[in-house]
Write a structure and sequence with these properties.
CATH superfamily of the domain at 4-114 and 318-327: NADH Oxidase
Number of strands: 11
Strand content: 15-25%
CATH class of the domain at 4-114 and 318-327: Alpha Beta
Structural class: alpha+beta
CATH architecture of the domain at 4-114 and 318-327: 3-Layer(aba) Sandwich
Order of helices and strands: HEEHEEEHEHHEEHHHHEHEHHEH
Length: 329
């Protein structure tokens, strides 16, 4: 069923799935006409921000869902998924899963949202009737708890700033984040991976300032009490709504990642831009604070937090991605 050309087409579509810090850790190998290996590039990890590898595994799940969405458009489906046991390797890459593809796939209702989905880290447009209608439709999703614009969102925005600064004060975390930021267009990695200035809605002057504030000037600015106000993003966060993404307790992050991608695509399908604020769910203190104010159904855990809203029509649409040839091994 699969030849090399179709396989490349499918992987190109699958590569549009999100990954933590846009590190793109998933690699692919075509074993037979119906068998695909999902592999992990062990060099693309986040030891400080993701020491357990939870978010990387979630990223693999999103990539697998991306492949599933791509398959549907070509009459294929993932008929079987066998998980790696953690010790299997191919060419030095850890086997995450073995996928068996089969006929009978159909175009997914969310497939049309794939091309437009991206992170929007700028301010959202003012709330309007269509935003409220879209939020009401999203509220029916089983994995999302929607917090509409208002004082509750302002409260979450302030919490996000406190949590974000908490992690920035950890040298290893801040340096790791900065290492994955592409703040200059002269950076050879600008269009390949990581978080570039365009994706973060930063102008050239803002990007230069970010490289200084998060880099060599941070210790001094912190002592002067200036680092925290210079890293605030509450006005951007508070300009939209919030969606808490939750999943069953004990679920394999691979499955969580598949659902995460679909939840994000459902926002795009409603005409909304979104961006995860992962630190809110990652830090136990903020996670507990959110659950105290916004309880989840029994048996669910908070996985991530999205800020979402209406994106300006002239917003940048660039997405940094590795060439497909580097993803297929």
């Amino acid at each position: 069923m699969l030849d090399s050309d179709l396989f490349r087409t499918l992987i190109a579509e699958a590569s549009l799935a999100p990954s933590v810090h846009n590190i793109q850790p998933t690699r692919w190998r075509l074993l037979a006409a119906d068998t695909v290996l999902v592999l992990e590039d062990g060099e693309r990890r986040l030891p400080a921000a993701d020491p357990t590898g939870h978010d990387v595994r979630l990223s693999h799940g999103a990539a697998i869902e991306g492949l599933s969405l791509a398959c549907g458009g070509h009459g294929l489906r993932i008929a079987r998924m066998e998980l790696g046991d953690g010790s299997d390797e191919v060419s030095g890459l850890r086997v995450i899963a073995r996928l068996t593809l089969g006929p009978g796939g159909a175009v997914d209702s969310l497939a049309s949202a794939v091309a437009g989905r991206r992170s929007w880290r700028g301010r959202f447009l003012p709330a309007a009737g269509e935003l409220q209608e879209a939020l009401q439709r999203l509220a029916a999703a089983p994995d999302l708890l929607v917090v509409p614009s208002g004082s509750a969102v302002v409260e979450i925005a302030e919490l996000a700033d406190r949590v974000g600064f908490h992690f920035l004060c950890e040298d290893a975390h801040r340096r790791e984040l900065l290492a994955w930021m592409r703040l200059s267009r002269h950076d050879s990695r600008y269009g390949r991976d990581g978080l570039n200035a365009e994706a973060m809605a930063l102008g050239s002057v803002e990007a230069m300032g970010a490289s200084l504030v998060l880099g060599p000037l941070f210790p001094l600015l912190k002592r002067l009490g200036l680092a925290e106000p210079l890293t605030r993003e509450r006005s951007k966060t508070a300009s939209g709504a919030i969606a808490l993404f939750h999943r069953p307790l004990g679920e394999d992050p691979l499955e969580t990642g598949r659902a995460f991608y679909r939840a994000w695509l459902s926002m795009e399908a409603q005409g909304l831009g979104a961006c995860p604020i992962s630190v809110l769910a990652d830090w136990p203190v903020s996670n507990a604070a959110l659950l105290a104010r916004h309880p989840l159904p029994a048996g669910r855990r908070l996985v991530n937090v999205f800020r979402l809203g209406r994106v300006p029509p002239d917003a940048a649409s660039h997405r940094a991605r590795l060439p497909v040839a580097e993803l297929i091994v």
